[in-house]
Amino acid sequence: MKIFGFIFARGGSKGLPGKNIKPLGGIPLIGHAINAARDSGLVDRIIVSTDDPAIAAVAREHGAEVPFMRPANLARDDSPEWLAWRHAVNEVGEFDVFVSLPCTAPLRTGTDVRQCIELYLQGDCDMVVTTRKAERHPSFNMVVLDDRGYASVAMPPGAAITRRQDAPVVFDMTTVAYVSSPRFILEHDAIFQGRVKAVEIPTERAVDIDTELDFAFAQFLLEHKQ
Hints:
The protein has 226 residues and is an alpha/beta fold.
């Protein structure tokens, strides 16, 4: 069985310019993703999809393959990530398991990646995603605003909830890993069009970096761990 790990890293990033190759703990974010794929012990090839020659060079320095460059129309701010996934699947030929490891979750471990792959290999789902317990709840302390600025509970519960602890547990999706099949990606257009299972990741390893503040928090966690 061929298991291919993919890292999708376009050059443009408005929230944190140069994000994908920005060093965290002396290693660029893309290097952390490459290391996690390698440390899982299950990924046969680590392939980077990028439109940026600088990202491609850093990826190769850290041991990943860059067998193709991503077309510009798939690397815009509004380009659906799913189409980049589909492009990569079509570029690399036949394989069995698709694993996406975004650069934005550099605190993941190889064990986290391995756990996601192993859950997928049990064979009773189309996609594995990763989650962490949500800090806020849409039936208790998350609100929406109407066109006059008045707030209301985002998802009103069927019964009164006076404490967050009494609300049903909900989870945030994280960017630690996505595992699926090439066929599912080619034949569908979104994650929840299939049967989805989830691996819960501890909050300290599920940081998703999109801004300078996110990066600073990840740096703090990494230094605290060391």
